[in-house]
Amino acid sequence: MRLGGCDLRCRWCDSPHTWRPAATCRVETAPGSGAFRTVPNPVPVDAILAAARALDAGALRFVALTGGEPLLQPEVVAALAPALRALGPRVLLETHGLADAALARVVDAIDVVSMDWKLASDVRREGEPSAVLEQPGRSFDDAHARFLALARRAPEVVVKLVITTASRDEEVLGACERIAAVAPEAVVVLQPVTPTGPVRERPPAARLLALQRAASRHLADVRVIPQTHPIYGAP
Questions:
Q1: What is the CATH number of the domain that holds 200?
Q2: pTM above 0.90?
Q3: Mean pLDDT on 170-187
Q4: CB count, 10 Å around CB of 140?
């Protein structure tokens, strides 16, 4: 389930249509069919749950709450997460990993927190100029560390770093050291970027594997996993 609105601007964002609330949204009519009906936003929580039941959510292992940034709407996440969990699936929250106050409101209803650890070479906050990406010393690390410490209240935590050709080894490995200091048990995913927008190429496999080996000196479970939903044509 994709919630609208985001307060970051990632150079590699594959869903910039979610940056602003939309007048309508799409609801799939049958699981995996690729057929949708359009409904007006905002959608009441009861209607969202009815759509989940119609899609047989109770038979699924997981339902993901993603965005945009779902924690910009913590009251919606707080209502949906326990209700979805009651249908049967586990609830996975996919988040940019910065809204720790909002996470505190919902974390006890979340089974898996899947958070990004943003690298400042590719990510800026809404309203910041693109030139800020070139400024030395910028980092989201302190905010992510606070968020991760709270996310550990969930049964599982996954931390994802999107790696581009602009990502610097020292920021990737520095982030991994910070993750290890807060949550050494976390699964850490190094995700090669899917070229989109201004990002035209992926980093080579050899570099990703070298980063994985180096990160594994600090962490027990480091994986290289590309995005899979573009392969299947999922939105």
A1: 3.20.20.70
A2: yes
A3: 97
A4: 21
